Predict the structure.
Amino acid sequence: MFTDNFDQDIIAEVQSGLAERRKTVAGNRVLLADRKQKHAQLQDKLTQMQQQQQTLAQCSQLLQNFYTAAQKASVKRLEDFVTYCLKETFGDDAYEFRIKYETKRNQPEAEFVFVRKDGAGVEQEYDPKLACGGGCLDVAVFSLRLAVLISSPQRPRKLLILDEPFRYVSQNYRANLMVLINTLVTEFQTQFIIVTHAEDLKELGMSGKGSLLQLGMSNSM
């Protein structure tokens, strides 16, 4: 009798333990299912974020390509304009103007160079400040200042005030320079006020007194 009761107690204890284990297993299954669901949600969010990042990267690349193309077009127009002014002043054998971009310390830097073909037809680069006559640099700087003025998005008054801008241009090129400046005045409706002591350059002015020379008419002056 005692043995039977003992066996029943053991059986009851085992059954109770199994029941607890079943509850634990069932709880773990629910927890596992919940974790799987959360993992799936996180995976979906991760996939969505990766897709968004990919889309942003594609858009960024597209904008960068567009900006690069627009930048190259603007640089080419600037190069062509300065080259035009150089050749109109010094003839067809004059230097061509180029802008070289390099990335230094993660920042783009521009370098201005003059280019001319040698006897073998190979282009050679020259530093405008060192290897070229001062007159070429005078005309190039004048052209750059004018290009900045006429291309400004703020559309300021088209007026340039210059102090001896062509002091190093040889006298035998000044007639060409006169023609060029009068052409620019007409084409871009620009006014120049120039301080100069060069008598031949004063012939350009539509009005002038002493060393002050005015080219182009202005309603406000």
